[in-house]
Design a protein that fits this description.
homodimer, Butyryl-Coa Dehydrogenase, subunit A, domain 1, Butyryl-CoA Dehydrogenase, subunit A, domain 2, 12 strands
Chain lengths: 600, 600
């Protein structure tokens, strides 16, 4: 059995040494838990991931999903993987004990999911969507809806999907046109076409519960007229069991660059005017509900980007240690034996960059997940409020940095292996193809950028941005006194100051009515603030590593030395880029905005 | 029939307005040629590319190469594409009339090949390798060898391959171990295993001529003991026709991330001790011969990277113009119709970046190709020498910038299409997968970087680097007087000064014995000098565009406005990055070098 390409030591460091998640157990909700139960869950996840996911990731990619006797059929091992994680309780892990959940902190469930994703993001997508749909239902569904559907979604009998995107609208949710007409009995007749709905059709579960955005007849135009519906594949009979089909049809199979292990497809709801949906919450509040769950969902995507980066790092490091080739430039003796390529500076660069992007992303994602817990369970209202603000402003970065830099990390992994990396004899090219999706689904990087600059940094008079700046400043203060870290603390302070001034300049331009100009370079802004946030995330890790390195020996000493060197890499190679980027942003550069269609 | 995704207007601009290739016809070698014959060849290439290549690029990717009755079989359209380009004379285009060639300038043949590559890089790889092998033979082969093989390689009856890489050696050619033992009759018995040999086995041609690097028994270790052999798949009989098989066996089919239309595979020479090869040139000079042809070969890879970037740009632009979605941030009226996404600033950014990378790469590649012609035919020795120096120092950049930034451009193309870009319903994801190889084959980016910093910039006391700096300064002087371009000229002068100082600092460190440290960040140096070279390439285009924009109207005016805006993009968004990069380089940053294996 192959070892999972995700460092158990790093997960341990992040959860217990950096984030101190045991602290969460002081809250009554998590009072039954402690390191022992956390470790047990993580160990179970690792074991299932190694047994049921990892061995089939390549197979899922190679064989894809087939139509067999008219049925949408993933590779058979998908079902075993699905069931194993469901039976071990992972679908219900963070839910209340009252509904059969384990009341695990969200951050611990995410750390567990990291293992499944390292096994196979493709196979885990069925769980991922079920968890997202169940979350939505648990938070906004009526008691009756919850009673009917939730227990079965938590035990794995029913899977779920999110059916938002429409062929004509894409990222422009305001233009959604799926219609909902009251049927008279409290339900709605749903009619519309969705696209890129993942896991919309299969036989892994007894029923598939679609969370569908649509418009009730007569609803306002735009985003204020969108409602959320629960639309099952099979209607429930009186006993609550799946009965009649509900006129939901997957109408095609899209061939994709990666993720062949599941479908992402067009789906017709109500092709024969016989699709019933049930309104979740109040009319016209669908987008609000969807966005309320967005932080969690987007953390999940960020986790995928981070984990795939970790996997590529792990695979390319193993290769670099075993592959002898060439000599150091200073050695011109052809009789000397070749060195392992891990000794070459350029290979070290690509490995170190991967480590910095991958572990930095994972640290950021798990920190954000811990904010989800803080937001709900921190002891005082101010701390809960602060956690919510941090989460709001960080989410676009948590979603996009791991996607963008994780994909770059995967490209480095391919490059470390050279020609071999381009072949399917090694897993790295698949990680690259899989990761490329993460900058697209659940809101593209460009959409994240508009969310960040157009909404988050200015919200509540800049309260979220200020909360972030304050948190960063706290780390700077902590690190300033340290001999090894003081210089980096100063560099981060400078970069933060620069990004602050840039932020206020952009917000001022926006408030002054220059909306299109102020937002024109939003993606560059997202990247810039992202670099600062990642540098901060690394400095936080370095503070812990520096303290623990004293007196550490052997593997532990090496582990902390690696953390410190990756932090140095980020500060030497990456963070300085923000200076030029801030200059471009603060100067309201109009180069792209002024480009005309006919000039292309 | 679909239109070729390569702008005819841009090719025309580059050849005739920027590079003034008609000027080459003053040399007797090209005296029969002129714009008319050039245009005729380009037109023929475009027609064949549209008819025989483009329609089958996706099919080649989807169906790949199969084993049919033990024969290695690409899709059947491969043969038609191969024959059409061969019959139109493209395999012989730059060769002497005496051997059936057309004596076209190299730069014009490369522009023609751009069309085939835009049709399908995969299908064109058979021609590409045949041309490379024939070049080697024409330059270094004996008269007898040429008489036997060359005419058939130029008319398409024989194809060729380059068999350099070995499984255990990869980029480390010094360690290659294929053996050559004199057989007594002037030939050698060849024995060894190669890997990643492209197009090594198929039935498209009557014979396959492998150019094989190997070691004659008793030869020195390292790179000084390598010889070059001509090894046919079938030995020629007395009549010069393919006869007995020559014990060359393709031993496997590698599944790859892209380029499924041809094989890149392990090949055994002399498994049964019955493989004969003929020495090309003198013993132990193989690597010298190979490197002598390297500039041309690497320009060819750069061309592939540039053209694939152009293709993705073209496809994503067409999509962006047709796809309505969303509204400008300043427009909050949900009743207004959605705009075409080409109107969104972030889409413009991704299109403009693609244009800047793709057209900048193509301009650079064709300029380098024109240096190949200048090197051979410039009127005076000093000009020929200068062209050779420029070519030497530029080749690592010409090979790697289009590969790296072209792949980034293709990633932008995917992003412009969003979820659709990730599917196989559009061509952009295939361009991305295909282009990802270009940073690997024919010397990885890291190898290019060592070639540039470890060899090229320091050669002949920095003569090549100085020739490049002087050429850049000439353009700066030209642009300084122009109102619109003066500021950019100044910025380029500053960046050039910075990279000059950095270069001398690195060379001084190297000369001072700090070899490993000076070369540790070679890849960053390659990128930095590459950015300066691309900015220069854009300023050169802008000088021409600015002059011609005066009085231009309609499509032409738009074309020149686009060139100027893309140039501005490079100067605002890309060139400023070199400042921080130079600081890192000149400071001899040791972050990556000091990273230890056990810290990863």
């Amino acid at each position: 059995m192959s070892e999972l390409p995700l460092s158990a030591r790093d997960v341990e460091f992040l959860l217990y040494e950096l984030l101190d998640v045991e602290r969460l157990c002081e809250h009554p909700r998590f009072g039954e838990h402690g390191r022992e139960s956390f470790d047990a869950m993580l160990g179970t996840a690792r074991r299932i991931a190694e047994e049921r996911f990892l061995p089939y990731h390549r197979k899922a990619d190679e064989e894809g999903v087939k139509l067999v006797d008219g049925k949408v059929t993933p590779i058979p091992e998908t079902k075993a993987a699905y069931d194993a994680a469901a039976e071990a309780g992972f679908l219900a892990a963070h839910h209340d004990e009252a509904v059969g959940g384990l009341q695990l902190p969200w951050v611990v469930t995410q750390a567990a999911f990291a293992h499944f994703k390292a096994g196979s993001v493709q196979l885990f997508s069925y769980h991922f969507l079920t968890i997202a749909a169940a979350n939505m239902l648990a938070t906004f569904g009526s008691e009756e809806q919850k009673a009917l559907y939730l227990p079965r979604m938590l035990d794995g009998r029913f899977t779920g999907t999110m059916a938002l995107t429409e062929p004509q609208a894409g990222s422009g949710l305001a233009d959604l046109s799926t219609k909902a007409t009251p049927s008279g009995d409290g339900s709605y007749r749903i009619k519309g076409a969705k696209i890129f709905t993942s896991c919309a059709e299969h036989e892994l579960s007894e029923n598939i519960i679609h969370m569908v955005l649509g418009r009730i007849e007569g609803a306002p135009q735009g985003t204020k007229g969108i409602s959320l519906f629960l639309v099952p594949r099979y209607r429930l009979d009186r006993g609550g069991e799946p009965g009649e089909p509900n006129d939901v049809v997957m109408t095609g199979m899209l061939e994709k660059m990666g993720w062949h292990g599941n479908t992402s497809s067009p789906v017709n709801f109500g092709e024969n005017d016989d699709c019933l949906g049930w309104l979740i919450g109040e009319p016209h509040r669908g987008l609000f509900y969807m966005f309320s769950m967005m932080n969690e969902a987007r953390i999940g995507i960020g986790l995928g980007g981070a984990v795939l980066a970790c996997c590529g790092y792990s695979a390319s490091l193993a290769y670099a240690r075993e592959r002898p080739q060439g000599r150091l430039p200073s050695n011109k003796d052809p009789d000397s034996p070749p060195v392992a390529i891990v000794e070459h500076a350029d290979i070290k660069r690509m490995l170190l960059a991967q480590k910095a992007y991958a572990e930095g992303s994972l640290a950021l994602v798990l920190y954000a997940a811990s904010l989800v817990d803080e937001q709900k369970t921190a002891p005082d209202a101010a701390a809960r409020k602060r956690a919510g603000l941090l989460l709001d402003v960080l989410t676009p970065i948590v979603k996009s940095y791991p996607a963008e830099y994780g994909t770059l990390a995967n490209s480095h992994a391919v490059q470390v292996l050279g020609g071999y990396g381009y072949t399917k004899d090694f897993p790295v090219e698949q990680y690259l193809r899989d990761n490329r999706l993460n900058a697209i689904h659940e809101g593209t990087t460009g959409i994240q950028a508009l969310d960040l600059l157009g909404r988050k940094v200015g919200m509540e008079d800049g309260a979220a941005f200020t909360a972030l700046a304050t948190a960063i400043e706290d780390t700077i203060e902590e690190a300033r006194g340290d001999n090894a870290l003081g210089a980096m603390a100063g560099e981060l302070a400078d970069a933060l100051e620069c990004v602050k001034e840039t932020t206020w300049a952009l917000l001022a331009a926006k408030d002054g009515g220059e909306i299109d100009l102020a937002l024109a370079n939003a993606t560059l802004y997202l990247d810039t603030l992202g670099q600062v946030v990642i540098a901060w995330t690394w400095l936080r890790q370095a503070v812990v590593a520096a303290a623990r390195a004293t007196g550490a020996s052997g593997k532990n000493a090496n582990f902390y030395a690696g953390k410190l060197q990756a932090c140095r890499y980020i500060f030497r190679w990456e963070l300085p880029k923000t200076g030029q980027q801030c200059a471009l942003l603060a100067g309201l550069d109009a180069t792209t905005l002024e480009m005309q269609d006919e000039w292309f």
